[in-house]
Amino acid sequence: MLRYIIVNIVGTLLRGFPMPCRTGLIKIGNPDEDSPVFLTANYCVTVERVKRVLEKSAIDCYLLVANSKGINVWCSAAGGYLTHHEVISALKTSGIEKLVKHRNVVLPQLAAAGVEARKVKEKTGWNIIWGPVYAKDIPGFIKNGYKKPPEMREVKFPLLHRIEMAVMWAFPFSIIVAFLAFFLWRSAVLPLFALTWLLPIMIFISFPLYSKFLNLRKNGIGVSRYTVIFDFGRVPLILEGVFIFLLIVYGFFTGHLSFEFLLRWGFVSFIIIMLVSIDLMGSTPVYKSGLHEERLLRVALDEEKCTGCGVCVQVCPRNCYEIERVAMMPRAERCVQCGACIVQCPFDALYFVSPEGRTIPPEVTRKFKLNLMGKRLVRI
What we know:
Blueprint: H1 2-13, E1 24-28, E2 37-41, H2 44-56, E3 61-66, H3 73-78, H4 84-93, E4 104-107, H5 117-124, E5 127-130, H6 138-143, H7 150-153, H8 159-184, H9 189-205, H10 207-210, H11 225-231, H12 234-254, H13 259-277, E6 298-301, H14 311-315, E7 322-324, E8 326-328, H15 340-344, E9 350-353, E10 359-360, H16 362-367, E11 368-370, E12 376-379
Parallel strand pairs: 2-3, 2-4, 4-5
Antiparallel strand pairs: 1-3, 6-9, 7-8, 9-10, 11-12
């Protein structure tokens, strides 16, 4: 329990950095040859959370930890660090084949952006079952016969996750700001430290109030990614306006209200808000980053190839799909262009189309993964 608490605290404070742990096989409870096999990335926080869910639910099973360079499942899969190569390696080197008589392994759904299930089947004979998005849903997933209702397939951005993201921004900023203030403005070290925690928390807690304004698509064709980022200046400006109002109230009741007071703290708060908000969408799981050139791509369907198998439904993290003889996207506006549906479609019926009408074949999406700046440069 102590390890779980420590890992989660450190992992939340340093969420923006890789946190690798040992790869290999972990036994949960007293598994036998019929017990389920799960696989996840070697991001320390993820491993501890999955273990805790499995142990608390008394699920006797095997947990395989694959090498993702210490990066979380979705980012490592989208970035080419968690692919079928790592899954194949984990299955072949862990000794799991001698411990169970079945050949089914449950992977987190968000790994579908990078792990090709077909390749794993071809190389190892193991079938990939796409589990739920969140580890907390694993017990219900098993109880439901390894089937997922829509709520288990969708990524969300609830309050707890928004607080974790705020902490990710606040912790390094507060350390840097406090260090600089110690030499440049020593009397303001504590207020500045508090401010760099308050503003990110305010930004992410209030996210549902302004999230509807964060829509990249309406910027149209030919808009540079940097223009798009700064086009959302109205959101940080609104937040800055709210904070200035709070400053005026505070200054009025404490007797500190003056032009110099408002100018100094208003400027500092504006810098912090802009830094946190500069790629606000990229800090959420429900929007595509403004840094990504793929933000305006759309997923297209070749109806002649589609058989209505439903794989796209199982791997889409935004519940965009429904099956009516063939795949349909009645909620296409929610798509975050993760490419999971394209990577996993066994019939190559799905592909990306650019705003100019250029077709991006499925094999290109499978082969080239996103780097941190949103370019498909990592080849697998």
